[in-house]
Every structure is written in C-alpha cells, then in structure tokens.
Design brief:
By secondary structure, the protein is an alpha+beta fold. 40% of the residues lie in helices and 25% in strands. The strands form two sheets. Strands 1, 2, 3, 4, 5 and 6 form a six-stranded antiparallel beta sheet that branches. A four-stranded antiparallel beta sheet has the order 7-8-10-9. A hairpin with a 4-residue loop joins β3 and β4 (93-99). Mean pLDDT is 82; it is low at 174-180.
Length: 291
C-alpha cells in the first residue's frame, strides 16, 4: 500500500500504541480465563472440593452389535476400572472381566493435552497486566508460542497414536516376554486383546480376536504396519508366533468435558489469530513495519 500521510501515520501510531498497551492485555485476560476453564475440565470434580479429581462412569455402546458391552470409570487421566462383557463367537460364551484392583490404564493423550494447556497458561502468565509490549513482533511471538501449545493439546485428543499390533499387545495387555495378562481379572483369553484411546470427545475400546497362523502359511505372511485400528486380516508376529486378526469390535462413549475442552481450544486459537491479524493490518498500512 502507498505510504500514509503524516497525519494518518500519527493516528495509526496512536491506535497501534493503544493496541499494544490495552487490547493485547484484554485478549491475554480472555485467553487466560478460557484456558483456566479448560484446565478445570481435566482435573476438577463437578461437585467436590477444589483439586479433587473427577471420577465418572461411562457406558460403552455400539450401534453395530452387542458383542462388547461395558462400563468404564475415568478419573483424571486414568481409567481406574473397566467392567466388560465380551460375547465372542469363537468362545461360545460371555466373558466377563474387570481391571485388577492394583491396575489402572493410563490415558496418555489426556495427560499430554492437560500438560500443553498448562504450558500455554504459563506463557500467558509470564506477561502480567503491567508488562509493556514493545512491538507487534513481540506479541506475534507470544501468540505463536501459545497457539503451538494449544494445537498440540488439540491434536493429542483428535489424533490417537498409530501403533503396530505387537506394540498394542505387548505394551497394553501382556507381560512382554511371558504373555501373562496383566490388566484384567480373570485374564483375557490368549487370542484376545484390547486397546483404549481417545478420539475427539470419545473414549474408545477396540477388542481384537486373533487366530494363530500355521507354519505352512508363512509364505503369505505380511506383517501389518502402524494404525489406530487394525482390520480383520491384519497379521503380526509376537514371541516367534504369527497371528492374524479375525474379528475387530469397536465400542465407544462420549465424554462431555472432553468436548468442552475442544471447544475452548478452538475459541482460544481464534482469539490468538484475530490478534495477529490486527497487528498485520497495522504493519501493512505503512512502509516501515512495527516489527
């Protein structure tokens, strides 16, 4: 754009000074309030003393079949209990299993998202109301750092980790070398294993049924790569034995407060971007950039 006149430039500089001194801090306060609410969703009981971690029960459901049913207890970033009924054709019975009393299933996605929110709040709190921003570039740098943490927090909830089948089996349910089930009582059958993860605002359980591949089928063996969900026909090797997934059952439940946090992330990211956009409007209005 053409250079502004001296009078226009003076007005713009006053407006920009006001933006840096007043509006930026107003936006930072909004961001802090939003992220404090997001942080509360991760840790605070709906009806309890400050600092008490919420414990909630969620009923697993599927519109496809009733082969897997159950209730999960989520407390903070851990599943503290699971009460699951498996109606698996191969076993011709309903298997009922729960977590062992000394075991919890850590939901790393929730912990990571909460940590990123904490980092974003730390960045915002490092600039209190008395701090004077010197340039648009300084504000942009802070917004970029906050947006990076918020994007990482959101991605942890929206993008479950892709895992190989041996990783799912070994890290989740079996002692790595001896195939001793470690989470459930009674133990799951040796040809069944499961995985829990977060996808958006849903808590998901996948149950895999396996069958052992005979040695004479080795010529057709193609181990599956990493995936969030492995389809029937996927093959893998564990402890010198080769398996194929025969059935996959996925059930899930909605966790309302996770949905709240995703909404907060979206609003906060929009506020950051709007502030950056205002700064860029000023910087493009005159030849020298306030950077």
């Amino acid at each position: 754009m053409a250079a502004a006149s001296e009078a226009e430039r003076a007005v713009l500089e006053e407006e920009f000074k006001w933006l840096l001194q007043e509006e930026v801090h107003a936006v930072l306060k909004q961001l802090k309030d939003i992220l404090k609410e997001a942080s509360r969703r991760f840790t605070l009981s709906a009806s309890g003393p400050e600092g008490q971690t919420r414990q909630e029960n969620f009923k697993l459901g599927s519109s496809v079949s009733d082969q897997v049913k159950g209730v999960l207890t989520l407390q903070g970033d851990a599943l503290t209990q699971a009460d699951i009924n498996l109606r698996l054709p191969k076993h011709n019975q309903v298997l009922h299993c729960t977590f062992r009393e000394d075991k919890q299933w850590k939901m790393q996605q929730i912990q990571d998202a909460r940590n990123h929110v904490g980092q974003a709040l730390y960045l915002l709190n490092s600039r209190d109301q008395t701090y004077q921003f010197k340039s648009g570039a300084e504000v942009n740098k802070l917004m970029d750092a906050v947006m990076l943490q918020l994007t990482r927090a959101r991605n942890r909830l929206t993008t479950p980790a892709a895992m190989t089948l041996p990783e799912v089996a070994s890290s989740s349910l079996w002692q790595h070398q001896h195939r001793v089930p470690k989470m459930f009582t009674p133990p799951l059958p040796g040809d069944v294993f499961a995985n829990f993860y977060i996808n958006l605002s849903k808590l998901c359980l996948i149950v895999y049924q396996l069958h052992l591949l005979q040695p004479n089928l080795n010529k057709n063996f193609k181990p599956a790569g990493s995936s969030v969900l492995h389809n029937p026909g996927s093959m893998f090797e564990l402890n010198n034995q080769k398996f194929e997934v025969s059935h996959v059952h996925k059930v899930e439940c909605v966790v309302p407060w996770l949905n709240d946090t995703l909404v907060f992330f979206t609003i906060a990211l929009q506020l950051c971007q709007q502030l950056k956009d205002k700064i860029s409007v000023f910087s493009s209005y005159w030849n020298f950039k306030p950077y």
